[in-house]
Amino acid sequence: MILQALKGYYDRLSADPDTKGVPLLGFARQKVHFCLVLDKTGKLIAENDLRLRQDKKALPLELIVPEPVIRSGLTVRANFLWDNTGYVLGADNKEKPARLVEKFNKFKSTQREVCGDLQDEGMQAVLRFLDDWNPENAVSLSDWKEMAGQNIVFRLDGETRYVHDRPEIRGRWMAYYAGKAAESKAGMCLVSGSEGPIARIHQSIKGVPGAQTSGAALVSFNLDAFTSYGKDQNLNAPIGEEAAFGYCTALNWLLRKESRQKVRIGDAIITFWAEKESLVEGLLADLLGADISQVETDAEDKAVVRDVRIILEAARDGRLQDAVREPETRFYVLALSPNASRLSVRFWHVGTVGEIICNISDHFRHMEIKKSFDNEPAYPSARSLMRETVSKNDPGTAWEKDERVSPLLAGAFLRSVLTGAPYPGNLLPLLLMRIRMDQTVNYLRAALIKACLVRNYNLGEVSVALDKNSTDTGYRLGRLFAVFERIQSAANPGINSTIRDKYFGSAAATPRNIFPMLWSLSQQHIGKLRKDSEKKRLAGFFDAKIEDIASALDATALPAFLNPESQGLFFLGYYHQRQDLFTGKTEHSEEE
After folding, report:
1. Which terminus of the chain has fewer Cβ atoms in its 10 Å neighbourhood, N or C?
2. DSSP structure string for 335-370
């Protein structure tokens, strides 16, 4: 099903005239660094640097070139009209001279094998250059230090197109490629169901973080234990040449650097596409991988936020047909993780555009909570939420924190978001542990706790802001702790170590052991406030606040332990009360 969906996506891309850069059968997108400019006699005129300068880095240019050969071990196989300098020039500053000679001779013979009799002036110029070239001259090239070992192509002087793009050469290459494919063993393709040549080895998939930089296989059989009936490599799972090319090209297209149809969460890279063109394809990355804030910085951000809000609000109100064309269109989500030379499928989901959006809308509705600051994201991304399961006190950038996110948790969480299933069972306990370790309940953690309580513990609609009518013991104790903390900071401005630093985790887990002491300590702090003429009225405010919260609590029968659900409500009550105290600060500032 995965390969069929990818092949269908390739067919859609190749049939769309507006889609640029999708290679046809026999070609592939490859990173190229330099171009050798030749005159019609094969003389080298110049070496052009094709790299793009970005943030003081030189990035290779991606070109569509004849499909690369598959090399393994010490095999010497050359590409057609492009390759690294070890093949094209017989030099790369790494290999032994004897092996470089072998590579260079292989490159020359490959060009003649494909187009040796073709009278195209571009092809003839390349052949003359190769015949006359001396590998020892490579070190005298002006950019040799940066060129050595990199991919290079050819171009005729005075032309803008590359030699491999000349029509006659392209035609000859496609005929050669088809002939080679026809030599493969024939069989029935598992993807298309049609008879034809079977691909023995599939092209590598690039762009999965953590996998080999040269690419990794999605389908491969590289050990005898994986094979059966004496079949070699991918003949064990017969996929036609055309289907194999289609699914590999489609997946590499989705994973390319500038793709808007991928997002990384933990060690997984998630790609998504629709059966037909859909607005959701371009917005899902913003919903899952980027924080859509209510504070837009430029016109493009405003447009993204607008589109996201329109779609999510339409899903919430049952008007999805008005916001998304053809919501019944099939939608595919594929998550991949690195695993040695092969890729692991973390999960695979097939739904419809409408189902996906409705499930994401439900996820954000369950997470809706009062923000600590106005510039916090209205729709927190899955990536930023998963970072909350990693210690806040650990050094490292956001991407380094991504690396420490549990791969299993990240995959299961994203599956829950997209399918509407309960969140992973270990998510709430992990959040509670993190909060106890970091003594921090921020906006994202509070939102996650709320979502878990609503979806996993069937608590119905948990309040977005402070719920003064809630009589739940855990929630009330959390509120009380927030007030005790505020009293302490008012009585001791600038205090280095607060009750949150010392007792936050234990108060949530074993309130009977902690709260009597906190209660007594708060009364001492209130007494200190009463002695200060400027803060006397503030003492009365806090006294009334404690009495209001504690009215639903039996101080003589505090629970010895709180279960994970009640601890979640404790931290939620703490967060709500803390936000309410800061929000209402201006209302009683004159009392301070």
Report:
1. N
2. EEEEETTEEEEEEEEEEEHHHHHHHHHHHHHHH---
At 184 the three-state DSSP class reads coil
**Model-level pTM?**
0.81
* DSSP conformational letter for 239: -
* Cβ contacts of 571 within 8 Å, gap of 6 or more: 432, 435, 441, 445, 446, 449, 478, 508
Residues 1 and 421: their CA atoms lie apart, in Å, by 22
| Separation CA 85–CA 461 (nearest Å) | 64
Q: Which residues pair with 217 in a beta bridge?
A: 342
Q: How far is CA 411 from CA 75, 274, 383, 405, 475, in A?
A: 38, 20, 11, 10, 30
Q: How far is CA 246 from CA 4, 120, 243, in A?
A: 9, 30, 5
- The secondary structure element, H or E, covering residue 31 is strand 27-32
| pLDDT given for residue 590 in this prediction | 38
E strand intervals along 76-209? 82-84, 151-156, 186-188, 195-197
Predicted confidence at residue 297, as pLDDT, reads: 47
Compute the distance between CA of residue 480 and CA of residue 546 in angstroms, rounded to an integer.
7
Q: Are strands 151-156 and 34-38 parallel, antiparallel or unpaired?
A: parallel
Contact between 331 and 356 (Cβ < 8 Å): yes
Q: Take residue 240 and report the two structure tokens written for it.
A: 């036609």
Q: At what angle do helices 427-438 and 407-419 cross, to 10 degrees?
A: 120
Q: Is 153 helix (H, G, I), strand (E, B) or coil?
A: strand
DSSP track, 45-111 = EEEEE-PEEETTEEEPEEEEEEPPPP--TT-----SSEEEHHHHTS--SSS-HHHHHHHHHHHHHHH
Three-state secondary structure of 527-568: HHHHCCCCCHHHHHHHHHHHHHHHCCCCHHHCCCCCCHHHHH
**What would the two tokens of residue 465 be?**
């802001």
Residues with Cβ within 8 Å of 70's Cβ and at least 6 positions away in sequence, in order, are: 77, 201, 203, 204
Backbone angles phi, psi at 334, to 5 degrees: -125, 125
- Give me the residue label for tokens 């092809």: 123
User: Is residue 454 within 8 Å of residue 523, measured between CB atoms?
Assistant: no
Which residues, other chains included, contact 275 with Cβ-Cβ below 8 Å and sequence gap of 6+? 8, 12, 329, 330, 331, 332
316 close to 361: Cβ distance less than 8 angstroms? yes
pLDDT reported for residue 556: 64
| Residue 255: partners with Cβ closer than 8 Å, 6 or more residues away | 205, 206, 207, 208, 262, 269, 271
Query: Nearest 10 degrees: CA dihedral of 345, 349, 350, 355?
Result: -160
Mean pLDDT, 10 residues at a time, over the chain (592 residues)?
A: 94 88 91 96 95 88 93 88 96 91 96 93 96 94 93 95 96 92 85 88 86 84 76 82 93 90 84 88 74 49 65 70 76 88 88 88 90 86 87 63 78 89 94 93 95 89 90 94 94 90 94 93 93 87 91 80 95 95 57 40
Tracing tokens 């050359």 back to the chain, one arrives at 78
- Cα 188 to Cα 554: distance, rounded to the nearest angstrom: 74
